[in-house]
């Protein structure tokens, strides 16, 4: 006897074997039914191996109690002890399914169905299940026989004898046998109706796809024809009666419950359409009226019951239509929209628990696979499978899905379907919601092999697999490639040479013969690389055609492919990363600059992806400086160091240009950037930060090469002009001032010589001819201009500015900002010039007149001969200088009193002037719009022509490319010029009022 307050050894053993209510389990084990097995370690081990030991023990006691006599009970106990296969199967089912335990309690002899353990018993098919249902002659008997067959499937499933795919296939085979048995009962009840018609039952959905759940609607479509010379109307009426009766036999609730609902709503016209149609009526409907989703549903159509010949005719007639569905207008968009609608209709409280319909759920996998099948199955019959996992395997084998992605998707789908199966198996209820009760979650986790901490382990595994599905679903299902491939003419999903020339002419390729040669070089052969290219090229051709120069886009793509074709990641990136292919197409066909930068280092194409190595967001100055300085430290000698720094600059210029192009053109994944000013700021900040980091690295290399760690003089570089204002464009020079300060104990002449040598070497290294674009340094804004020394000490600057500075020099200092070198010296320089650029008394009238005179002189003398002033983005009326000088005049007048004006940035100063009431909001908006547009024009010209320019190109194709960058479609270059003139004219009117008045 156990002492009071102490637990029995049995209690402890039960806890150790996974029982959650050991006290109740002890009572059951002490009962009459299990007295002799109470201490049997084999029984406890077997119970402990189940998903829910408490449930399994309770079910076993109920089964023993249900045995009709002691002999039957003894037979069950003896078999349970002696036969491990039966023990594992029976207890496994009892621990996983309360509903099947109820069935066994009602039909106490059905446990015998689990005794057989022969090889032929491992994988029964339709014929074996038909034999198991053969004696059922009424709906009740059919339910009992169905549960008995289901018992054998569930037993082998929970014991791991069959895997997920085999379980789903067997459930579909059992459903097929059940439909046949139900139809036979219906025909026997109405022999006259059966004689009048031929009726075929077509399985759809998961039953048709041979991947059924434990409890699921069985989707069907009925096809009927008259038998012999029977009247068609009467025959259809008879067929409808038989079909209705068959559905009721399966669906209605009896004393033995129901089997599952038979759902015929996938038929033409859904619930509003006739239940049974003739074959010709089906064909006519699908040819004329069917929606996209109905063809998607037909992917899984499979004849399962009734007249086999008629079923085969149905499939033969409709399958060709399935593979034409992708030719329909907006096909891919329709499928994607339907998937989004499904997600949107999930009740908010259920979204996070939905295994099937929620984000990262089973439907994501199924929709993605089906879309890929429908798009690529037009020309590849290996994809014609109704089974999700088989189709996924075929997609991977054909190169349409990456092998690694397919493997991850397969694993995730199997796990999620296994979760769904075990949830449904518990009470044999149709549900796709993950339970919330901890006991249910514990049983579910244990049923999937998670024993240490079943609830936490289940949650982790579920989140991980759902995350994989969500990520891959977005990559596969929304991959923009498919939309374009689906819009090709039939037969063109895999490019044929015969169709290519015609298609390229239609797409606007100026030299289709050359383009065809590029295509042949890229897509010929039987390698996996060529297969992927054949899948990509039809889409890329369309994207190239959406640019102003598709020929250049295709030529550049061939060059990049030739350079990277042997790398394992290049084509995989384009195929698998949702954004990469379209981003590359946009970049390669938008002009000369970005492709030229890319060709010098083709591996930079990896930046165009959306994975861990991709990303077009420009990097910040600290990151750039860190990378460049690290490269300089590793280099041998100054020239090698600066070569490394310029290499980083080239790559980052490409990143910035690509981000600018993608934001300007827009892609499927990223719409056109609505805020054009944001794109100007992106380029200005990125190029300015990059220039500053490059100067910092070059300065470090020069000093190290000539003087080691320490230069005899402190040295700083001050950014001026658009550089200091963070407004550099792709082709801008870097306006700078150089300042130095001798270190303690260093002779001023020695310090000055060192500083001049640094400047000379820095400028030389940044302009050495190489594959990288040069960085031109302009120091003409220094005191005395070109006549003055290139570098001065801080004291020299102070003396000069105190005695000799002119108003134009104070004006130029509005943009002065430290960019590289000694930060303390740079800070002291800006403190020195602050009183000059933000004078305490503002500007006198003489100074204002001088600034206006200088501006007028600039307009008349510096505008290139022959240029149209109204279209000159820098010097023309309403152009950059008009806006900048207007804003800078306000800064000089009010910068001392208005802190917001003390900035080197034009747009920030303009906003501050408006906020302070110095410029009206309307005028500020007009000036900002004009400045942004003029900046965009200059950036566009550089991107398109590969060299800087302030006016619109005269070449029609280049002008069209600038138009595309600025948001004007083909044939609208004139509208672009009119818009520019109109915007500049409005800005000039404001300038006349604010600057010249």
Write the layout of secondary structure elements.
Elements: H1 9-16, H2 22-29, H3 41-48, H4 53-66, H5 70-82, H6 84-96, H7 98-106, H8 119-122, H9 126-133, H10 139-158, H11 164-189, H12 191-196, E1 197-203, H13 205-208, E2 218-226, H14 232-251, E3 262-263, E4 276-277, H15 279-288, H16 292-298, E5 302-306, H17 308-322, H18 331-344, H19 362-376, H20 388-397, H21 403-427, H22 438-447, H23 454-477, H24 480-486, H25 497-507, H26 512-523, H27 528-545, H28 550-564, H29 570-576, H30 580-588, H31 593-599, H32 621-634, H33 638-665, H34 676-707, E6 713-719, H35 721-724, E7 734-742, H36 748-767, E8 777-778, E9 791-793, H37 794-803, H38 807-812, E10 817-821, H39 823-837, H40 845-861, H41 880-894, H42 906-915, H43 921-945, H44 956-965, H45 973-996
Parallel strand pairs: 2-3, 2-4, 7-8, 7-9
Antiparallel strand pairs: 1-2, 1-5, 6-7, 6-10
Helix pairs in contact: 1-2, 2-4, 4-6, 4-7, 5-6, 6-10, 9-11, 10-11, 11-14, 15-17, 19-20, 19-23, 20-21, 21-23, 22-23, 24-27, 25-26, 26-28, 27-28, 27-29, 27-30, 28-30, 29-30, 30-33, 31-33, 32-33, 32-34, 33-34, 34-36, 34-43, 41-42, 41-45, 42-43, 43-44, 43-45
3D architecture notes:
The chain is mainly alpha-helical and 997 residues long. It has 45 helices and 10 strands. Strands 1, 2, 3, 4 and 5 form a 5-stranded mixed β-sheet that branches. Strands 6, 7, 8, 9 and 10 form a 5-stranded mixed β-sheet that branches. α36 (748-767) links the parallel β7 (734-742) and β8 (777-778). α20 packs antiparallel against α21 (403-427), α27 (528-545) crosses α29 and α43 (921-945) crosses α44. The chain is elongated and about 120 Å long.
């Amino acid at each position: 006897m156990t002492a009071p307050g102490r637990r029995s050894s049995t209690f402890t053993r039960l806890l150790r074997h996974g029982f959650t209510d050991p006290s109740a389990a002890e009572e059951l084990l002490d009962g009459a039914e299990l007295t002799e097995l109470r201490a049997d370690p084999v029984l406890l081990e077997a119970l402990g191996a189940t998903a829910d030991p408490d449930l399994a023990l309770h079910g076993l006691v109920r089964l023993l109690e249900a045995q009709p006599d002691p002999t039957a009970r003894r037979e069950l106990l003896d078999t349970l002890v002696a036969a491990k296969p039966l023990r594992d199967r029976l207890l496994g089912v009892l621990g996983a399914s309360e509903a099947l335990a109820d069935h066994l309690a009602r039909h106490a002899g059905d446990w015998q169905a689990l005794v057989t353990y022969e090889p032929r018993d491992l994988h029964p098919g339709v014929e074996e299940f038909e034999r198991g249902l053969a004696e059922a002659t009424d709906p009740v008997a059919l339910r009992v026989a169905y549960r008995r067959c289901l018992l054998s499937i569930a037993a082998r499933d929970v014991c791991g004898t069959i895997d997920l795919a085999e379980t789903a296939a067997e459930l579909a085979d059992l459903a097929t046998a059940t439909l046949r048995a139900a139809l036979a009962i219906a025909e026997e009840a109405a022999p006259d109706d059966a004689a009048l018609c031929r009726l075929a039952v077509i399985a759809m959905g998961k039953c048709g796809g041979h991947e059924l759940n434990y409890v699921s609607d069985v989707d069907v479509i009925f096809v009927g024809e008259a038998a012999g010379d029977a009247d068609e109307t009467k025959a259809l009426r008879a067929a409808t009666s038989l079909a209705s009766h068959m559905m009721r036999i399966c669906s209605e609730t009896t004393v033995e419950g129901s089997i599952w609902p038979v759902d015929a709503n996938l038929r033409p016209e859904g619930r509003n359409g006739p239940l049974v149609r003739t074959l010709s009526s089906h064909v006519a409907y699908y040819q004329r009226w069917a929606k996209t989703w109905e063809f998607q549903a037909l992917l899984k159509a499979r004849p399962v019951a009734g007249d086999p010949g008629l079923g085969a005719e149905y499939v033969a007639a409709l399958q060709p239509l399935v593979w034409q569905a992708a030719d329909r207008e907006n096909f891919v968009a329709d499928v994607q929209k339907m998937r989004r609608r499904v997600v949107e209709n999930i009740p908010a409280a259920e979204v996070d628990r939905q295994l099937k319909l929620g984000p990262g759920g089973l439907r994501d996998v199924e929709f993605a696979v089906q879309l890929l099948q429908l798009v690529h199955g037009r020309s590849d019959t290996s994809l014609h499978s109704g089974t999700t996992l088989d189709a996924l395997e075929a997609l991977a084998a054909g190169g349409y899905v990456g092998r690694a992605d397919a493997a991850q998707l397969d694993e995730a789908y199997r796990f999620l379907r296994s979760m769904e199966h075990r949830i449904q198996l518990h009470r044999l209820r149709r549900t796709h919601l993950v339970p919330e009760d901890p006991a249910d979650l514990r049983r579910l986790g244990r049923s999937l092999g998670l024993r240490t901490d079943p609830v936490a382990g289940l949650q982790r595994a579920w989140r991980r697999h759902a995350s994989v599905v969500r990520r891959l679903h977005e990559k596969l299902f929304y991959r923009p490639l498919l939309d374009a491939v689906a819009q090709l003419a039939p037969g063109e999903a895999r490019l044929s040479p015969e169709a290519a020339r015609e298609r390229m002419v239609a797409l606007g390729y100026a030299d289709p013969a050359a383009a065809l040669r590029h295509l042949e070089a890229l897509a010929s052969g039987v390698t996996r690389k060529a297969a992927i290219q054949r899948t990509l090229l039809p889409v890329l051709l369309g994207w190239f055609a959406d640019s102003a120069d598709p020929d250049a886009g295709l030529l550049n793509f061939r060059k990049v492919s030739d350079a990277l074709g042997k790398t394992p990641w290049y084509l995989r990136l384009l195929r698998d990363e949702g954004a990469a292919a379209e981003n590359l197409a946009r970049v390669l066909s938008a002009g000369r600059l970005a492709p030229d930068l890319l060709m010098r280092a083709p591996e930079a194409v990896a930046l165009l992806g959306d994975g861990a190595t991709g990303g077009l967001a420009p990097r910040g100055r600290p990151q750039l400086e860190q990378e460049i300085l690290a490269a300089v430290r590793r280099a041998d000698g100054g020239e090698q160091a600066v070569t490394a720094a310029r290499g980083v600059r080239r790559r980052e210029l490409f990143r910035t240009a690509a981000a600018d192009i993608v934001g300007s053109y827009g892609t499927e994944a990223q719409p056109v950037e609505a805020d054009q000013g944001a794109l100007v700021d992106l380029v200005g900040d990125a190029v300015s930060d990059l220039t500053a980091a490059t100067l910092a690295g070059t300065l470090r290399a020069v000093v190290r090469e000539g003087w080691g760690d320490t230069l005899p003089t402190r040295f700083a570089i001050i950014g001026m002009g658009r550089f200091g204002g963070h407004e550099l464009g792709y082709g801008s020079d870097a306006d700078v001032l150089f300042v130095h300060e001798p270190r303690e104990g260093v002779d001023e002449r020695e310090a000055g010589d060192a500083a001049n040598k640094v400047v000379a070497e820095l400028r030389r290294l940044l302009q050495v001819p190489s594959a990288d674009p040069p960085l031109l340094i302009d120091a003409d804004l220094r005191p005395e201009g070109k006549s003055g020394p290139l570098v001065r000490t801080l004291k020299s600057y102070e003396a000069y500015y105190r005695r000799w500075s002119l108003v134009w020099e104070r004006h130029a200092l509005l943009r002065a900002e430290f960019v590289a070198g000694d930060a303390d010296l740079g800070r002291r320089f800006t403190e020195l010039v602050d009183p000059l650029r933000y004078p305490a008394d503002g500007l006198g009238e003489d100074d204002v007149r001088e600034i206006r005179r200088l501006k007028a002189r600039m307009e008349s003398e510096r505008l290139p001969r022959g240029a149209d002033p109204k279209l000159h983005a820098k010097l023309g009326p309403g152009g950059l200088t008009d806006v900048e000088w207007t804003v800078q005049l306000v800064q000089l007048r009010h910068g001392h009193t208005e802190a917001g004006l003390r900035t080197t940035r034009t747009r920030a100063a303009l906003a501050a002037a408006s906020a302070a009431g110095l410029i009206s909001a309307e005028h500020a908006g007009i000036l900002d719009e004009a400045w942004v547009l003029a900046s965009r024009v200059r950036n566009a010209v550089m991107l398109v022509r590969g060299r800087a320019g302030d006016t619109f190109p005269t070449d029609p194709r280049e002008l069209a490319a600038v138009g595309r960058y600025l948001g004007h479609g083909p044939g609208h270059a004139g509208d672009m010029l009119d818009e520019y003139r109109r915007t500049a004219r409005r800005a000039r009117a404001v300038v006349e009022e604010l600057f010249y008045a």
